[in-house]
Amino acid sequence: MLEARLEQANLLKKVVDAIKDLVQDCNFDCNDSGIALQAMDNSHVALVSMMLKSESFSPFRCDRNIALGINLTSLTKVLRCAANEDILTLKAEDAPDVVNLVFESAESDRLSEYDIKLMDIDQEHLGIPETEYAATISMPSAEFQKICRDLMALSESVSIECTKEGVKFACSGDIGSGSVTLRSHTNVEKPQLNVEIDLSEPVALTFSLKYLVNFCKASGLSEQVRLCLSNEVPLLVEYALSNNSYLRFYLAPKIGD
Amino acid sequence: STGQKSILGFFSKK
User: Fold this and answer.
1) Alpha carbon A130 to chain centroid distance?
2) Reported ipTM
3) Interchain contact, B9 vs A157, CB within 8 Å
4) A39 membership: H or E segment, kind and range
5) Dihedral sign, CA of A175, A234, B8, A23?
6) Where are the alpha helices (DSSP H) in chain A?
7) Which of A8, A59, A139, A254 satisfies CB 3.0 to 4.6 Å to B2 for a cystine?
8) pLDDT digit string (tens) for A83-107?
9) Which spans in A133-191 are helix H?
10) Which of A112-133 are b and which e, b meaning 16 or more Cβ less than 10 Å from the residue's Cβ?
């Protein structure tokens, strides 16, 4: 059986909120290392990969591998019933028909309990190769969100060009063009504002802004976002969570002109 | 116009 207790419901609320417009039905794969999710969007352009390590829960118990097939719209409805600060416990039997969610208020004696019916989801798992990326950029997640939203007002696509000069986000559309360039920057007092660019070779790739703006819904999960790029491979957008847990998005590049 | 690649072109099915 599975029993996983989260100190704050907020974490799961934010994760589900960040991915629910990209993927609808997905398996939450539970084993003794934690709860993982991997799903592609309908058009097979983007891939979501979430890992909530067992250390992110206290306690965490999962005796055998269980796949919880959950509709994210249903999960969102139930998670709305939890206060952000509630303690959240996920429970399931070994061959479950439902997943049980318990919300407890730390401040009062309220205890809410919900069951969500599970679905049989035949999901293909993709092997994501270990990649030595040519460029890795760490930057404030709010800054990345603003850049993506701003550029989407002008164009459907953004080119991300990383050189030793810095990283340039550029677009052009019917009304004109725009770009934002960032250089490495260290803020000793506010390290969450740092921009770090680690480059082994120059990279230039083009991506759909619609997807990037969607990924940025995860901005509330982490002060910093990491962008990993290599020529002609999908972009990795990573939001690191506590205890080595993470929410990652992969986006296939656009090609040609 | 630009073409959009599929993620399946990069990551193989397990």
Assistant:
1) 18
2) 0.92
3) no
4) strand A34-40
5) negative
6) 9-19, 72-79, 141-152, 209-215
7) A254
8) 999 999 999 999 999 999 999 998 8
9) 141-152
10) eebebebeebebeebebeeeeb
